[in-house]
Amino acid sequence: MSTATNGGRGSMLGGASDGGAAPAADRALLPSAEPVQLVDPDGQHNHDDRYPLPDGEQLLGAFGRLVAGRRINDQANALVRQGRMAVYPSSHGQEACQVAAAVVLGNEDWLFPTYRDTVAVITRGVDPLQVLTLLRGDWHGGYDPHEHRVATQATPLATQLLHAVGVAHAAKLRGEPTVVLAMCGDGATSEGDFHEALNFAAVFHVPVVFFIQNNEFAISVPLKNQTVAPSLAHKAIGYGMPGERVDGNDLAALLAVLGAAVDRARDGGGPSLIEAHTYRMQAHTNADDATRYRSADDVERWVPRDPILRMRTYLRALNLLTDEGERAFADEADAIAAAIRKGLNTEVEVNPAELFEYVYTEKTSQLREQAEQLREELARDAGAGAAPDAPADGAGDEGDQP
Ligand SMILES: Cc1ncc(C[n+]2csc(CCOP(=O)(O)OP(=O)(O)O)c2C)c(N)n1
Hints:
Elements: H1 24-27, H2 56-81, H3 95-103, E1 110-112, H4 118-123, H5 128-136, H6 145-148, H7 159-174, E2 180-185, H8 192-203, E3 208-214, E4 217-218, E5 221-222, H9 235-239, E6 243-247, H10 251-266, E7 272-277, H11 296-300, H12 307-317, H13 323-344, H14 365-383
Parallel strand pairs: 1-2, 2-3, 3-7, 6-7
Antiparallel strand pairs: 4-5
The structure holds thiamine diphosphate (TPP).
């Protein structure tokens, strides 16, 4: 039982670093001195009294999702290059964060993802084709958020954190056992919405887990220009909630740390803030040239820390992962990629007039004017016998190329 001055809310997520003369209850809110790591880059288990290693079956199942996640990232990048998708913010290298965020939640819980969290959304069970609809450039989000309890992927930074807190607060008021996990990047922690969300969550003691994927960059802005706090997880104590740091490329540690935070929230322990240290291995999106602000050597240093590599080594050494198991995971990942290719290589019928629909119940005078202008232009083109835009050379017959 905690004797915390904040009504016992500050029960530990794990151990605390040495906070000097601060009362124990306050120190308990501080993150570990180093990110929690249960399996190191060489695939060796590090014992941690606070966080037991998830069992082999759980790790193996989640490993299969990692393999699928990497394949989804590769496939989506290829489809962008083929002009089949407008944009794709890749989570290559961050797949362990993606998978863990999804699998620690139960059916009754909610996930609030960002634009980078496509793999998390798919891992939660949303149809990949529906998920990629938004990034294909369609006007809608592609999936029903209620079906799998996954909010629409947020592009405006940190706005989803406030929505997540609202849903968690509502669930608490209704007496439901729902926990909400809200994802954001390191750059998003500089937004006012981040502060408002964490403060509200702490004051109203709502069941939410804030999960920061610190991939060291906000497009070209490095973390050192974003904060001078000892770590992003240290921000938690300022709100009166516990913070924790975790190796963001260690699937086992992520499952243990996020799992503990979700359990804690469900048991009435209130919100917490988890910072996963990982790295964005690819450009911010296909619209970004990352060579302008970081060197190939910087990226190279993270290659041996790859989340798939280390979990594979660990599982193979224990014989939990066999040749046959690997083949089955690869086949499963290929099948997902093939379905994505097939779906995205199908032409969609787009009605340009829809550009003006579904935002206002009653259109503004400017929108009415613009809609009319577009209608006239389309009618003029049709009258001039203009053929509808032809697909780009070869588009539509890429067949089964990845
Ligand atoms: C409110 C707001 N301001 C600016 C942007 C433009 N923007 C898009 S992504 C991005 C960087 C975000 O970095 P981070 O939060 O670290 O997430 P990451 O992209 O690395 O996953 C910025 C500034 C935005 N989408 N929303």
